[in-house]
Amino acid sequence: MKLYIKYMVSTRCKMLVKEELNRLGLHFVNVDLGTVEIMEDITLQQREQLKAALLVSGLELMDDKKAILIEKIQNVIIEMVHYADEVPKVNFSDYLSEKLHHDYTYLANVFSETKGMTIEHFIILHKIERVKELIIYDELNLSEIAWKLHYSSVAHLSFQFKKITGLTPSFFRSLKQKKRNTIENV
Questions:
Q1: pLDDT for 147-184, tens place per residue?
Q2: Span 3-20, pLDDT tens digits
Q3: What is the DSSP track for 100-145?
Q4: Both 54 and 87 in a single domain?
Q5: Contacts (Cβ under 8 Å, ≥6 apart) of 158
Q6: Which CATH number characterizes residue 7's domain?
């Protein structure tokens, strides 16, 4: 049985879900960002207990098909931008369509209608958060960051960074207190 969990965006979230499943005596096959596959069917009582336990931690068990699709889109983007060693070189629309087995136009319309922003804007917001993270780590220069995240140039990265944050990447690097948003709040 497959369950869908909203706001499950980190390794810590996955550990928390595993703990709750174990506590309820449920055996999981796979726990991934936004999805859990368990071996058995769960009772209504177990579902309600899991739902309540997840809510305490800021996670949400989902039932609505559109909400599940939106969460899948977000999780593919988060995984692609924040957790992949390298952002795929294919077009994002093709990548999403292939991963989620839906026409991109359909995905884009459902996402925009529900989230109030385009998929492209959501990707840009996450790429900028990833740029901030890489700047803070101070292991790569801007050219290497631009290359890693498939920007056409440092100028393009800088333009998007300034448009979203109001700061240049260089000025952000020089700040003593660099502020990042959590993945859940992007």
A1: 999 899 999 999 999 999 999 999 998 887 777 777 77
A2: 999 988 888 999 999 999
A3: HTS-HHHHHHHHHHHHSS-HHHHHHHHHHHHHHHHHHHT-S-HHHH
A4: no
A5: 142, 168, 169
A6: 3.30.70.100
Whole-model pTM: value is: 0.76
Q: In which residue are the tokens 């909400």 written?
A: 67
Give the C-alpha separation, 185 to 78, whole Å. Answer: 12
Query: What's the one-letter identity of residue 182?
Result: T
pLDDT in tens, 27-42: 999 998 889 999 999 8
The residue out of 39, 63, 87 marking a domain boundary is 63
The number of folded domains in the chain is 2
Q: Using the 3D structure, point to which of 41, 63, 85 is the last residue of a domain.
A: 63
The rounded distance, in Å, linking the Cα atoms of 59 and 20 is: 12
- Please check whether residues 150 and 74 belong to one and the same domain: yes
Tokens of 170: 């260089």
Query: Whole domain around residue 134: which residue ranges?
Result: 65-186
Q: Give the count of beta carbons closer than 10 Å to the beta carbon of residue 136.
A: 14
* Partner residues linked to 30 by β-bridges: 37
Structure tokens at 65: 């098909």
Question: In terms of domains, do 88 and 162 share one?
Answer: yes
Cβ pair 107, 119 in contact under 8 A: yes
